[in-house]
Amino acid sequence: MNQRRTALITGASGAIGAACAYRLARQGWDLLLHYRTERDETLTKNCTDAGARVGWWQADLSEDDWTDSLRDQLKDSGEVTGIVHAAGNTGEGLIARVSDDQIDRTLAIHVRAAAIIVRECSRHLLRARFGRIVLIGSTVGLSGNAGQSIYAAAKMGQIGLVRAWTREMARRGITSNVVAPGWIETDMTVDILNRNRDALENEIPAARIGQPDDVAAAVAFLMTEEAGYISGQTLPVNGGLWMV
Question: What is the CATH T-level fold of the domain 5-232, as seen in this structure?
Answer without folding.
Answer: Rossmann fold (3.40.50)
